[in-house]
Design a protein that fits this description.
The chain is an alpha/beta fold and 340 residues long. α11 (294-304) runs antiparallel to α12. Helices cover 46% and strands 14% of the residues. It has an 8-stranded parallel β-barrel, surrounded by 8 helices. The radius of gyration is 19 Å and the shape is globular. The chain binds 1,3-dihydroxyacetonephosphate. The site of 1,3-dihydroxyacetonephosphate has 10 residues, from α11.
Length: 340
């Protein structure tokens, strides 16, 4: 394992005020998002959409790394230029989603286990050869009646740690994504408890599997009430709960924490990240950044609608969201930036 290279890459991903752009939706998730806005669900439409994203002028000014999907990392622009070449020219580090999805956990109704460990070593070697320098694996935990179970938390934490160790062996920085889902009526306090318990399990397992903490990135959920909870948190309450949970559970050796957006609106995701950086910047041992998919992409997708004539305007919307999140890293985000 080249510890220096892993540490350098991890630091580079969260350096300054940039963050990650997740564009690693599986084909089925991408198709579902296309169907919602009436875009045809074809390989060509997915390719054209990803071309729109990565050719956005000055994307590299706000985005340090993008997370790709297996289909996308092998694709090219319409003129034949490989996507990986465009990213290299923009100074953006390519990453790759390597889990194969969350499946039902046997004997645990309502709970999931993320799969993809079988055959992972050669897949990681191939991605490294292609030029990827980091990877992502997402584990999902639902809150509900009697769940999550301890066994589900432990099984997912162990899979995340085994994935992370394999990544580092292959020279890839693992982005470790333990996500507590927002669906449900649960209160903020319940999300806090589950998030902390999950993160504790994750770091126990990461240590057990000898993962170099300096050479990884954590991609957690923010601590928020469920989407159907009648009491929604104020921006500062969510920011405080999230940072307190992270301070209790995430070792200072981890260079950066890059949040997923998880179904929050783009504006709220930026406002919450901003509040965390305003209120805690001097007290946090790690960089607090973003690795959003929907909270960066959604406005662009809704403008593009599969039409070539909308590409420029969609790219402007994408860049605006990326810049808003960059400002949130500095604690300088304001809602009016959404319109300028
Ligand atoms: P969202 O920001 O849309 O939650 O996606 C992040 C991600 O990478 C999910 O795995």
């Amino acid at each position: 394992m080249n510890t220096q290279e892993l540490t350098d890459t991890a630091r580079k991903l969260v350096a300054g005020d940039k963050g990650l752009l997740a564009m690693d939706e599986s084909n089925s998730t991408c198709d579902k998002r296309f169907a919602k806005v009436g875009i045809p669900q074809t390989v060509e439409a997915r390719r054209a959409y990803r071309e729109l994203i990565i050719t956005t002028p000055d994307l590299g000014g706000s985005i340090s790394g993008v997370i790709l999907y297996d289909e996308t990392i092998r694709q090219q622009k319409k003129d034949g230029t490989p996507f990986l070449k465009i990213l290299a020219e923009a100074g953006i580090v390519p990453g790759i989603k390597v889990d194969t999805g969350a499946k039902d956990l046997a004997a645990h109704p309502g709970e999931k286990i993320t799969e993809g460990l079988d055959g992972l070593r050669p897949r990681l070697q191939e991605y490294f050869q292609m030029g990827a320098r980091f990877a992502k694996w997402r584990a999902v935990i639902s809150i509900g009646e009697g769940i999550p179970s301890r066994s589900c938390l432990e099984a997912n934490a162990q899979a995340l740690a085994r994935y992370a160790a394999l990544c580092q062996e292959a020279g890839l920085v693992p982005v470790v994504e333990p996500e507590v889902l927002m669906d449900g009526e649960h209160a903020l306090e319940q999300c806090r408890k589950v998030t902390e318990e999950f993160l504790r399990n994750v770091f126990i397992q990461l240590n057990c599997q000898r993962v170099l903490l300096e050479g990884m990135i954590l991609k957690p959920n923010m601590v928020l009430p469920g989407l159907s909870c009648p009491t929604q948190a104020l921006v500062d309450e969510a920011a405080d709960a999230t940072v307190h949970s992270l301070l209790r559970t995430v070792p200072a050796a981890v260079p950066g924490i890059t949040f997923l957006s998880g179904g929050q609106s783009g504006e709220l995701a930026s406002a919450r990240l901003n509040a965390m950086n305003v209120r805690f910047k001097s007290r946090m041992p790690w960089a607090l950044a973003f690795s959003f998919a929907r909270a960066i992409q959604q406005p662009a997708l809704e403008i593009w609608l599969g039409q070539e004539t909308n590409v420029k305007t969609a790219q402007q919307a994408l860049l605006r969201r990326a810049r808003c999140n960059r400002a949130a890293r500095r604690g300088e985000y304001a809602a009016m930036m959404e319109r300028t």
